Amino acid sequence: MADGRAAGRFTGAIVIVTGGGSGIGAATAHRFAAEGATVVITGRTQEKLDKVVADAPAGSTMVARVADTSDEQGVSQLIADVVAEHGRLDTLVNNAAVAEPGTVEDLDSDAWRRVMATDVDGVFFASRAALPHLREVGGSIVNVGSVSGLGGDWSMAAYNAAKGAVTNLTNAMALDHGGQGVRVNAVHPSLTVTEMSEGPRSDDDTMAAFRQRIPIGRAAEPAEVADVIAFLASHDARFVNGAHIPVDGGLGASNGQPNMG
């Protein structure tokens, strides 16, 4: 892994960011690229990925690959291809996620499975494929969870359950693989200005209510979450393993009700 004490903390590093076509994923990709990494972003829509690459910091290296992380064979092949092309893998950021609004009574089975397939299976498949390569270089995994995985949240039963699974999967991987030199940590955003937050439950009154619960008084910007992800992947966090960092503007400190990240 590139020494984080250097001016470019990730110079020479190879980083994969899933769900890199917008929001937190795009901001994270740009942050790593700005600090010297070669970044591979994945997503389901070529047009979105191409725009992120086009907006990358000048002089940086970023590659777009269409991939669905819920596709076990597809994501395994993606990671194998990245390592074959670049010779190594230093960091995996599991960011890809979807949300379907509804209570347990409201959700149909297909909606439930869509959320679990991307938000949980995708983390499992990508991490399993990446671990042998990360072990070789002392790399790390950063999972993007949500405050909705740390506590309850109204009418988002599938998303809450999936992000709760990501929380404990992070714990399990940190225990199992920390001694092998692979650190595994998670960030847990609260309301963030992304396409997802502008989808389910995005009416003005609901968004205003969410913001009122956050002591800082606003939603996070994707770049503010990316800052924490980059820290966790860096040499600066070399003794941080199994950590769960809420990026929530103080929501947890206020004992407020979590809301969709």
Note down, in words, how this protein is organized.
- This protein is α/β, with parallel strands linked by helices and about 260 residues long.
- The chain has a single domain (about 15-245), classed as 3-Layer(aba) Sandwich (Rossmann fold).
- Helix content is about 40%, strand content about 15%.
- It has helices at about 25-35, 45-55, 70-85, 110-135, 155-175, 205-215, 220-235; strands at about 15, 40-45, 60-65, 90-95, 140-145, 185-190, 245.
- A seven-stranded parallel sheet has the order 3-2-1-4-5-6-7, sandwiched between helices.
- The longest helix is centred in the middle third of the chain and has 29 residues, at about 110-135.
- It is globular and about 50 Å long.
- The two termini are about 30 Å apart.
- Residues about 1-5 and about 255-260 have low confidence and may be disordered.
- It is an enzyme of class 1 (oxidoreductase).
- Its EC number is 1.-.-.-.
- This is SDR family oxidoreductase.
- Pfam families: adh_short_C2 (PF13561).
- InterPro entries: KR_dom (IPR057326), NAD(P)-bd_dom_sf (IPR036291), Sc_DH/Rdtase_CS (IPR020904), SDR_fam (IPR002347).
